[in-house]
Amino acid sequence: MKGFHPNDHARKGFRKDGLSSTFAPETHPGVSRFFGGARGNNVLMSHPAATYRLGIVSTYLPRRCGLATYTADLREALGVATDDLETVVVAIDRDGHSYGDEVVVTINQDRIEDYSAAARALREAGVQVVLIQHEYGIFGGTDGSHLLELTRALNACGIPYLLTLHTVLSRPSSGQAATLRALCARAARVTVFTETARRVAIRTGVAAGHQLVVVPHGAPDAMRQPPDPATLRTDLRELLDKVADKPTLTTFGLLSEGKGIDIAIDALAAVVKEHPDTQYIVAGATHPEIKRRDGEVYRESLQARVELLGLNDNVHFVDAFLALDELSAILHASTLFVTPYRQPEQICSGALTFALGAGLPAVSTSYSYAEDMLAGGAGRVVPIGDDAALAAEINDLLTDGRALAAAKSVAEACAVWLPWPAVAAREAELVADVVRQTQAATARPGHSTATAPVLNLAHLDRLTDEIGIIQFSRGSNPELASGYCVDDVARLAIVAADLLAVGIDTKQTAQATRWLRQSIRFLTAAYDPSGAMHNVLSYGGTWQDWPHHGDHVGRAVWALGVLVGTPAVPDDIRRPAAALLDELGPRTHQLPEIGLRTAAYALIGLARAGRTEQAAPLLRRLDEALLTTSAVDPSWRWFEPELTYDNARLPQAMLLGAALLEDDAMAARAVAALDWYAQHVGLADGTLRCVGNRWHRRGESPAVWLADDGDEQPLDAAAITEAMVDAWQHTADPTSARLAGWGYSWFLGRNRAGARLYVDATGACHDGLSATEPNGNQGAESTLAYYQALLSLLKAGLAALPHPVVATTPVPTSLPVTGPSRTTPNKAPTGTRAVGRASAGFSATAQPPRSRTTEGHSDAL
Length: 861
What we know:
The protein is α/β, with parallel strands linked by helices. About 45% of the residues lie in helices and about 10% in strands.
């Protein structure tokens, strides 16, 4: 094990490898700042004993990539910004590099066992917190999934971690989304470089809003002032003399086709027609991975393009890795910086950051980071791939001296807050906060991030077959005669999507995906062109009702919205879900006439899918109901004059809809209603007592409710848990996070009976809770309610699984069956699956409409 070295003296060894300091922020090694340039020999001094020990997981110098450079910069800046952190590095390696003493662990990126071993090594080294730099293509496994082994091991070792996202995709693949969401769910904090990246991360569901913090990319202090020209090497000094007093454009970074240098060269051909003396410096070596694969094909194509366009006297290629002082000299000799990148989703550019750190305005294509950084006027943004537009903006700035001066003034203002020490101070404070919170949680019981029971999907697997999920169970045995219903299949779809979202192993991923496929097939078959839906399907495969409107339609919209809005759901499932939502969505404005819960279910789905126009009328209806009922009796701050079933879905839906429509007043009223309800059911005092199946009515004496208001239902506990999670993500109020955890704990025995409803051996949940004991039956609704509650906490990072998902063999429960007896059909023994039924599809029969009572109300057909 290598020792801890808070200074960077070991970096001198990098020079022995023959590596000069690289030119681009994607490539320059941090050693250059110690051997000249604006900062001279300002080597970091060793501090007294640090308060915290931080491990940074990343690629690292001398590996030539942007992430390695960023990490070296950050580590140095942390040493300048604070005496409290002693920082070491876990280097992600592939080529067997030799590292300095600050690298205490090396991970072969393709060896999965190295990841968990690294966590144990960090614990032995006394590291208290870890900062992971995440970039696609750096970590081994499918979609970088090897990194999950490290985070699981860190959790097991009791070491919290922060995650920095260097790329946030607006349309991640299902695998990318699942891996990243699992990483973020376990993280204490997730940092991104811009507010746009934060919004994308929230919208795609890879991280919760409360976790995300914007910490900008830093720029070295050396960028602030140009160096003494006499200190530069001869060839660079000659180049700068050649471009002196001429309009000069610059692009730097590791060359690859994605950098779009060819676009800038084509634009230059138009620029020189108006400004013939314009020069263009293209600095940086070819990206090592591109060079390894293709050689210098791209560079040679650029050189050929320059010759074809007659620009040999205007374009200058610098095929080198330059020191920071040399880079600063070029930027300060330039008129405009150009980033003609091709990737619209690029959320960070070290090159653009360095340019702005030097006070240099820019003209860029419209990738995310450029749009954010140049929005204040530090440059111009043009469509990606549009060389004519790029040329027009460059010409405009070169022609209009006042406009160019204004852009330079804004760029110089950016340079004030971009230097690394200021950025590192923010990062250091986040790290310290995480350590302090972890220490406080260890010393004080009841930390909001709790360990949940092992995720056991055995009972759900037993309830499901190729058609859907059996509604009821007698004890733990599926009661096949109860058949299937849209309500439960919609819940199954939501649970399956959330399982993919939190990240599960290969076997359970296949299981959840299968549930999603059969769910979308079932919902599609239940849909009628009139906009209504069947609900109940017999075990034999025939519909038991006519198409009608009811809660099941609202729940179907909810499930479809979740499928559409969850990137982890495979595209071949999301597409038919979106198509069915396109059919149902425009008709949802009619649902409030059925009932507020029907409307609320649909609104949750529309909000999850981001369907603003369709959500608006449902949101208004809920708000009107809340205002009207509250006006009658201000002490009854609710939507209806009675509390019935699934109550918390009303304020949850209103909050999600208000957040979607950005209506702060409605959101505040929704949160106030939820808080009132939490007080009413005792959750605010620590123990949830759900409204029993005899309901609570305005004007009744509380003594009536407290005496015996009937059995409590798991779906009510799930509803308030999920609602509190959403409230926390909207308000960042830690009280909501704590109440969400208490709501979930209702399933684990934190209830009036002190009884555990979750069955660890099978993963089932009991159907209800009396004053003294649970109901012995374990049907679909209750079991799915448990998983909806748990998964909402896991997605938000308020709970963590003790280890990867497992499925165990079901064992009988010792609890007695307390529900009504039911007749098992002769066609198949209980617990087996019938064969020879209409499994290839569903037949709608001309049977008379029936009425099904679930959740204590009549689902009228």
